[in-house]
Specification:
The complex is a heterodimer. Chain A has two domains: 5-236, Rossmann fold (3-Layer(aba) Sandwich); 254-483, Rossmann fold (3-Layer(aba) Sandwich). Chain A is built from 17 helices and 20 strands. Chain A has helices at residues 43-51, 73-79, 96-101, 113-127, 142-155, 172-187, 199-205, 228-236, 289-297, 318-323, 333-336, 344-348, 360-373, 390-402, 420-435, 447-453, 476-483; strands spanning 5-14, 17-27, 32-36, 58-63, 66-68, 81-84, 160-163, 191-196, 208-213, 216-222, 254-263, 266-274, 277-282, 303-308, 311-312, 326-329, 408-412, 439-443, 456-461, 464-470. By secondary structure, chain B is mainly alpha-helical. Chain B has a two-stranded antiparallel ribbon. The longest helix of chain B has 28 residues, at 186-213. The chains are: A alpha/beta, B mainly alpha. The A-B interface holds A 73-74, 77-78, 83, 85, 89-94, 98, 101-104, 107-111, 113 and B 162-165, 167-168, 170-171, 174-175, 177-184, 291, 293-294. The structure holds adenosine-5'-diphosphate and magnesium ion.
Chain lengths: 487, 301
Amino acid sequence: MVPLLEMRGIVRTFGAVRANDGIDLDVAAGRIVGLLGENGSGKSTLMKLLFGMLPPDSGTIIFKGRELSGHRPAEAMLAGLAMIHQHFMLIEAMSVVDNVMLGWPAAGKLLRRAAVANQIRGASARFGLDLDPDAKVANLPLGRRQRVEILKAILRGADLLILDEPTSNLAPAEVAGLLTILRRLREEGRGIVFITHKLPEVLDVCDEVVVLRAGRVAGRAPVAGVSRAALAEMMVGRDTTHAHSPDPRPPGAVRLAVRGLRGPGLAGVEFDLHAGEILGVAGVDGNGQIELADTLAGLRRGEGSIVLNGQEIARASVAARMQAGLAYLPADRAQTSLVRAMTIAENFGLRDHAGFLLHPAARTAHAKELMTAYDVRAPGPQTVAARLSGGNAQKIVVGRELDRAPSVVIAHQAAWGLDPGATRFVLDRVVDLRNRGAAVLYISSELEEVLAIGDRVAVLSGGRFAGILSRDKIDLGQIGLWMAGQA
Amino acid sequence: MMDFLAAAIRIATPLLLAALGGILSERAGVFAVGLEGMMLAGAFAAAVTAWAADNFAAGILASIAGGALVGVMVAIVTVRMRADNMVTGLAVNILVAGLTSFLARSAGQGGRPASIHLTPLAAWPIPGLSDLPILGPLLFDHPPLTYLAIVACVLMTLFLGRTQIGLTLRATGENPEAVFASGGNPKLVRMLAVIACGGIAGLGGAVLTLQQVGTFTDNMTGGRGYLALASLIVGRWTPVGAAAACLVFGAADAFGLRMQTFGLPASSYVLQMAPYLIALLVLASLGRATRLPASIGRPLD
Ligand SMILES: Nc1ncnc2c1ncn2[C@@H]1O[C@H](COP(=O)(O)OP(=O)(O)O)[C@@H](O)[C@H]1O
Ligand SMILES: [Mg+2]
């Protein structure tokens, strides 16, 4: 049987990051291939290359026996590919039928609205989509909007559908509906690439699974003969020997005690964080990471108790928490932590509330010291923050927050988007701080990072800690199962 | 009464054409602040060409070209160079005002504007229909550009609602990324929409010179471009809605003119303010109830 799709030796780099490092992928007609892997393993990049949204550095793509190269999305669609993006490409102010007709040659130059609406009703009934052609997209729940995208793919006669994390924003009942639709598409002989991190979904609907790790294929197998634990282990890998691993040391007194923390996205988080300890928090994005970090820092309110250095702070203001020794490195540093229009010196000075008057000379001198200490590469302290690369911007935030010698640090995606050198630098500063007795909560969706620097590793799943393992008891299979929502 | 309504329709004609152009631009995602300049350029080109060539048809074509030229300028600066829509529109309006006044003088002698005298286009009663009671004088006894505006309004409604290009244009103002993902070229759509906007608004300018006044005077649009902008917002970016709004403003203007001929003791300047006051009141009463095209004013990468 000739495969529908053959991708061979696909390589794509972003600067120093090898997002795809020689990947082969085959999809046959009438098969659902699960593409599994952690965040950042290169799944989306591979699919963007296939759909012509990015050019590959090297490698060949053969679709229906014809080579695709230098193609753009328009050509990919004509060839019979369809991509259901994580962020839907719909016009919310328009009806379902208008969205289907947009850019679809078969709808006619003079639009055949009534005929297309009938086609929609037909396809909707055949695949159980339950879509009203005249409904306005803005009024549809997310699950239905996704079906509009699937409908577009069906009506355009796509032979291969790519779904990038289609279940990450869906309620459980909507997920079940989606899987049913995918099975019907398979029966019709269409091929599907289904990207997810969730093992149960893979085992439920896929025929075979390809696991990516760090831009390479870590394993592939027919779903029939593979165990959950084996998949989990393929996904997270064994290689956890990172350079920054801190020396083991006995933990000190409890610095941060959290009990029954609840709120939107949080379902009862509990843990103790000790002086001189890094508690790494792993987990798939969207399981409460932002909510946990923001609630601890005081940017959102939650129920429950947060005791910082013996003092209850669950109701305290952000400023009071900072005063009590808390530092926060948020994930969206550009939004929350930096004033992009201000200079480096001004950004370093944002936390210095002492006194009313500013002291520009002293501030500039201090900024120079921090730039050296935290390796901020810029022409000088008067450079505007908006000019800096992501790595250098993050180093300013890290420098400003860690320079105050906080006793507790909440870090969320502290190394997100940084090149390996900058990642290493930020992680080393966090470990330094821990060695000097600070307590660190290190939240990241990069499991390797968490395993590398955590004295203990917790997995956040569904808004609570599924479990905590200490460094000497790490069991990757167990962590994979926790991450996949299998308690 | 019939006279009054027919006058309102004639006064609304240039506004309606400009508003129809503006709908194209705004629906594609570019604020149509430059309508005033586009109209003025059209008015000037129409008057000069019709006078020099002694041919009204040439004047009409020239007005489209003149407005479209301003449209090209706005399209390049806002879409290609991603400049702010508001500032660009205002700058273009001021530029065109200066440029047309200058050119009118260089076409004339001794630093005075060229003296252009055209007989305004007369009404073309439509045989058979113009004798109908009520509808006849209201709809079928107008000068040619007024018929054109009414037809343009109908065609524009069909274009936006019933054609693939119209759908793509509306989608571009809402979510250009989705247009790109479905194989379209949102930048090109915006450029063409702005240029077409210029052409149609230029035609609106021709109504002033060829059909209403018969000459060109400095800055003769006198804010009608802005009034057209208000009409299309009040009309919720639909041709029929904008036409209704233009009619209201036209009626206010006709009412003001009536009052003057009756010799009411109000200053003619106060009466001329009427349509603008009404526009202000209607806009204020709509408040935030209007929904702009979601991506209007947002430049594309
Ligand atoms: N446009 C981009 N610019 C720079 N780096 C990128 C870009 N897109 C992806 N990356 C990097 O490539 C790697 C793979 O990313 P991605 O394919 O999105 O992973 P996944 O979809 O598996 O989570 C990550 O390290 C990510 O940071
Ligand atoms: Mg992805």
